[in-house]
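request received
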Amino acid sequence: MPSSTNAVAHSLRRLGSFAIEHVERLGFAARFFVAVVANTPAAFRRLHLTLREIYFSGVLSLVIILISGLFVGMVLALQGYDVLQRYGADQSLGVLVALSLVRELGPVVAGLLFASRAGSAITAEIGLMKATEQLAAMEMMAVDPLARVVAPRFWGGVISMPLLAALFSTLGVFGAYLVGVRLIGIDAGAFWGNMQSAVDFRQDIVNGIIKSTVFGIAVSLIAVFEGYEAKPTAEGVSSATTRTVVMSSLAILALDFVLTAFMFRGVS
Amino acid sequence: MSQSTDQTADTGAVRAPDIAVELADVTFGYDRTRRVLDGISMTIPRGKVVAIMGGSGCGKTTILRLIGGQLRPQSGRVIVGGQSVPDLDREALFALRRRFGVLFQFGALFTDMTVFENVAFALREHADLPEELVRDLVLMKLHSVGLRGAAQVMPAELSGGMARRVALARAIALDPMLVLYDEPFAGLDPISLGVVGQLIRKLNDALGITSVVVTHDVYESLKIVDYMYFVSAGKIAWQGTPSEVHATRDAFVRQFVDGEADGPVPFHVFAPSYRDEIFADA
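response:
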């Protein structure tokens, strides 16, 4: 009897310790976010630092984003046509593809790719700077690493993400056009015309941009936080990089559900 | 065991304005269970090169971090340039650090910048100087460590000794009053070792700065320093000038200087009786 009581007490202790540790980390991440935002003016005063990070996070992610967008659009067209033609609605292929991409797939898939390509790179870079004492050196030179290293990378990611999602959707629509119109032979006028009349700028495109911006904030914050908090060892940096990809992916999917529930509830 | 704590015999009378760094009865631990420093006191006069020596994990680097304000002592005073470091707010601490130079164990050069940009970093961050002047100052600093010709090289292309020299040029970029060296000799070949050692001494004298060198390299230190503190188990185990180090029969210093495997610092980690453990199952 005492041993089973001890086991329950032990489990409760572990559960409590787990909860406290994670709530504490969440609180610390929130304070970190406030500190990064507070350092935004310093980051933008030296605009070249943020522009450099837009290049590293955004421009260098273009290849994977553009190619993925193209193929996602092509696959969407093939699958969409297969279903739509059963109901005689194959002329609506453009609408299906455009709404799927602009509302959901563009922000979500681009976000997931961004987390894997740029988020992991940001975490690894900051983590290695910490492990090789570069951040400590900066601190000792009276330069705040939050302003010099973290804030430019955060804003570089936040600015890049909606642009990458927009390009992903654009290439996706183009891919669907290649398959639907050029390959399958759907009427080009119906493809573009139906798309134009069904896609609403405020309801679909702006909401898509809002989604991708929120994902950009989430991924960039997780990436810089994990890098900054990484244990200064090879194993620590490796774990932090993995955590960035996992946490960012889960955050994107969870946030997507919440945002979709608010944005498209009751929309016909 | 400890020699007199008064440095006046060898370094001249140390008056308060002549003290660059003072630690008084400092205790520190990374957690509540183990003290890394246990009541350490030391005085570092202006213009001198002072070494803090001891085995790995004895708390040498912790002392450096306390001086630099990266850590706060649990008790005691840390005074740098007349200011109590633990009592400074972030702004005042950063103002004080602008008068510091720090050379980290492996240089800690910014890997995404050239040698030139590394040395120019602090100048560009803190001094609103025209780019032509920054260029001249950087080249002067690089020239003083013999690496003007490597200005456009990336840190990854440098040898360990050259990286340490670049880090030294970066540390003195703002003409600091105090330079902290964390294991400046670690992992260097004999030539680089001599070069870095001589640079520490020459730059100290030429620029009138104060140098605190944390190291476990006794022989190289003996050539360049004015005074040495030996730290063991969180306390000052011994202190004196290089000539006193050569002359002393103190068991700890002799073990350290002569590289003896066993002595006051035991070879074996504390463990139960060898006999009891071996024959436990017999």
